[in-house]
Amino acid sequence: MKGQSSIEMIIMVGIVLIFFGISFAWYINSNIDIIKSSEILKAKELCREVGDVINNVIATGMNTVDKFTLPSRLDSTNYNLTIFAPSRVVHVAVKGAGIYCSVLTTNVTNGTNSIFELKPGNYKAKNMNGVVNIRAI
Q1: In what order do the strands lie in the sheet with 121-128?
Q2: What's the average pLDDT block by block, 10 residues per block, for the chain (137 residues)?
Q3: What values do phi and psi take at 96, rounded to 5?
Q4: Exposed / middle / buried, residue 74 (Cβ in 10 Å: 0-12, 13-18, 19+)
């Protein structure tokens, strides 16, 4: 009888360990999804911020200036921010997801192009004769 109860005890411990292993794997997977969702939400916030700056500068009128800063990373993730002025779109790419925000005008430039990427750093947006000119400062 002692041998049988020992085997039953080993089987029960094994079942409990398998249950905990599956629960732990599910927990880790859920955390990864939460982290990715958090990064996408921060990308949306950044996209809206840049779009709002462009919209405010164009709506407020000539010689309006607004400054903004692009962070070096979103949480611990790299990102790319591109302005597609002909399409009136600000695009933020993070972790394989693309976030798009619209702007009010097609007249946005970095001084040479209407489709351009902004790197992390400080920027100044200025309304110059109805054109939003974005330059690093």
Answers
A1: 65-70, 121-128, 131-136, 108-109
A2: 77 92 85 76 94 96 94 88 96 90 94 94 95 94
A3: 80, 0
A4: buried
